[in-house]
Amino acid sequence: QVQLEESGGGSVQAGGSLRLTCAAAADTDTRYCMGWFRQAAGFRKAREGIATIDNDGRIIYADSVKGRFTVSQDNDKKTLYLQMDSVQPDDEATYYCSLAHDQCNSWWFLLRERRDDFGSWGQGTKVTVSS
To answer: Stretch 10-38: mean pLDDT, rounded?
Structure first.
């Protein structure tokens, strides 16, 4: 059973920084992909993958956040972080931590296909950006 709990969301001014944290109660001793996705408010807004890191430490970023956001995890691989710098109004969304016992390429593919079986996720933490 996977349990993920996000924290650190809140209000930030455009250009500012915020750090999100995800505490994972899950098996991270075998192959996994952990990451962040977000969903903006609005009818049928799609989930957008942000960043992933796998058990070998390989990282993938979405083009929209590359160079601004940094994903990392603790050595015990039970805590995932998302450092958000140079935050923009388009970054306003609810951010979710996710884990899948699969390759990250599969996670990204299934997320883009709007599938729900890309992995487990938490309750989310909301980020509001003021300009």
So the answer is: 92
